[in-house]
Design brief:
The protein has seven helices and eleven strands. Helix content is 31%, strand content 23%. The mean pLDDT is 96. A five-stranded mixed β-sheet has the order 5-4-3-6-7. β6 and β7 form a beta hairpin. The two termini are 32 Å apart. The protein has two domains: 140 residues, Glutaredoxin (3-Layer(aba) Sandwich), CATH 3.40.30.10; 43 residues, Antioxidant, Horf6, Chain A, domain2 (Antioxidant, Horf6, Chain A, domain 2), CATH 3.30.1020. The chain is α+β, with helices and mostly antiparallel strands and 217 residues long.
Amino acid sequence: MKIGETAPDFEAQTTEGRIRFHDWIGDSWAVLFSHPKDFTPVCTTELGYMAKIKPQFDKRNVKIIGLSVDSTGDHEGWAKDIEETQGHAPNYPIIGDADFNVAKLYGMLPADTQGDAKSRKAADNATVRNVFVIGPDKKIKLILVYPMGTGRNFDEVLRVIDSLQLTAKHQVSTPVNWLPGEDVIISGSVSDEEAKKRYPQGWKAPKPYIRIVPQPQ
């Protein structure tokens, strides 16, 4: 999978019933984040944290969906552990991918992967540690891939979504370490003539190709 490609559509069973992925996304944004195995320690903390901050995604019109290479029955048992240890049970669907269909479709496992998911260890599925941010146009906007031993930073995913939504609307770019409310850069595709119409107050330009303006509202 590459940024800009259409996210593969699929049907799958989740902890909240069967879905067709593109229909489930609808006109929202989506975050699909994957896990190599149920009852793994790092993933347990991640699923709990995502449940805790789900209102932040809701505010941005972003749907959350998890995936793990086990059955939805196992997911339901795992959810109890997540609530007990993290204080929050998953409040979003988790895909049961015991047949490896979605993991293979998204390039997280080799196409020839087969067998019984229960017989596989987490290390066998170590590459199923991705975050995909998908837009309402069903295009992939962001891909993050993490090793098994490093917990993911979902506050960073929120920051990137803020940038993606802002830049899609206003033809600007966000500089290094940008946070919402800070200055942005006028996109190179916007001519100086057009920029003068959009920003009559002008802009700061340490170089002609770096045109800095306050974040559009």
